[in-house]
Amino acid sequence: MRDFFVCDIFEASPKDDLGTMEHPFFSLSTRPDRTIRQYDHNGTQITVTPSVRGRATIHDKDILIYCISQLMAALNAGREISRTLKLTAHDLLVATRRDTGGDSYTRLREAFERLAGTRITTNLSTGEVETTSGFGLIEAWEIVRKSRGGRMISVTVTLSDWLFRAVQAKSVLTLNRAYFDLRKPLERRVYELARKHCGQQRTWRASVKTLHAKAGSDAPLRVFRAALRRMIVDDNLPDYEMSEDAGDVMVITRKRLIEDDIALPRFDAQVMEQARDMAPGWDIYALEAEWRGFWVASGRQKLARPDKAFLGWLRGRITR
Known about the structure:
By secondary structure, this protein is of the alpha+beta class. It has eleven helices and 13 strands.
């Protein structure tokens, strides 16, 4: 394994790990959250301990999503990966749809500090043996600047072994790119839960009380319920729509199933190799998914040669 992995894949498809999608590791507060949190899930206990700078926020998680996305794109392309990544701050900000002004780099550094300072302790039982382990959301980070006070040239991030194992096991799900456009923390968290629990099924039903616990919200239940009702009216969630049912139940319905393009065949290795040659450094799997979405949106035309249609579309895509 190499000492580090260089993040050089353009438009890598956003990926999120199942562990942090399932459990409320991240703060939804806009103020520093220094409270120790403990969650119980199917007999497994998880304790999240923040540093003096506060618990890592749901927006700080963008850094992890970017890193996971790069590693997964590399794995899919057959490249070797490492849990230490070298990236440029500008590419990270652009990929996560953040402003690239001077203040953004300061906020990025603060996010690294919260991610490294937030500690996870969990006990995992195997038979009669219980193991307790602790780790940070990231193990280490380093910023290289052009000059004192200048812009970041490069950033090195070392992921926790726990998170890196999730990547190696491909224990991840793809996110809609519009996830990064969601500015309200609760919208992001509910989208994560919808993506995790809907899966390939059309609808997921959960009580407000269950959603409150899974989201990790500190708001009183009545305030949380009101926030969910505002989300129903705003209808901002990518791919999903929310509604309310009797019995204090929220219903989340997928607008379009992920594999709604199954009428098209999967391309063989030769076609994907041609695509890789045409778009070196790009995530060809993300491009393929984008093209399939374009095909659905444009009316599902009957294609005699889907492979040729894809490669023709790709020629235009990489020049735009």
